[in-house]
Design the sequence.
């Protein structure tokens, strides 16, 4: 054995006895009463059959409504503010996913770190172990908050406090996905405390039509 071998920079051991264990690298974890985190941070679950698109040429072959709305998301992602949040709402979950998934895949291909945030009390606990959400090799982070309208104000506040979103040198985008904009004014007020640029974008039914 070579004694000069350097140990890994990050080591994480996650162990549970008669319970559930969950850990992340590169972000804080909050655990409140009851032992369930108010949220889970996970690497974006790329579908096995999906291929990251290194460019935006997919817009040319997309339905007109979907291409326009994808273009709006890309312009928002690439806008100048260091921290920006957008509330994506309307239509059905499938139609929203048809915008979110290409955005996530293209962002990964472009070198962004893409993660998803799930509301802890409302979802099945993810597989035990650790999640590496560090944006190593990238200065850009895209976080997709699923079912944002179902989060409690307290848990959403805990999420937005996470230092992962407040690194001085990292461009950060938080995309909150929901069926309606009813919760958006209250969430926007929370984001205002972080001087985040905020905007909303509705999803029209035409975003998923094939003709």
Sequence:
């Amino acid at each position: 054995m070579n004694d000069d071998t350097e140990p890994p920079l990050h080591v994480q051991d996650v162990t549970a006895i008669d319970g559930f264990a969950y850990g992340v690298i590169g972000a804080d974890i909050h655990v409140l009463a009851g032992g369930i985190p108010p949220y889970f941070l996970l690497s974006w679950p790329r579908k096995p059959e999906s291929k990251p698109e290194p460019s935006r040429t997919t817009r040319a072959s997309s339905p007109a409504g979907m291409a326009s709305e994808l273009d709006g998301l890309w312009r928002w992602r690439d806008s100048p503010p260091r921290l920006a949040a957008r509330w994506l709402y309307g239509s059905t979950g499938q139609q929203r996913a048809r915008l979110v998934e290409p955005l996530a895949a293209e962002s990964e291909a472009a070198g962004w770190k893409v993660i998803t945030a799930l509301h802890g009390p409302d979802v099945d606990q993810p597989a035990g172990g650790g999640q590496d959400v560090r944006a190593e090799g990238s200065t850009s982070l895209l976080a997709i908050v699923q079912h944002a309208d179902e989060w409690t104000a307290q848990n959403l506040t805990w999420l937005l406090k996470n230092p992962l979103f407040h690194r001085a040198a990292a461009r950060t985008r938080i995309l909150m996905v929901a069926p309606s904009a009813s919760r958006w004014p209250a969430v926007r007020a929370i984001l205002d405390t972080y001087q985040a640029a905020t905007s909303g974008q509705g999803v029209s039914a035409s975003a998923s039509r094939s003709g």
Remarks:
- The two ends are 64 Å apart (CA to CA).
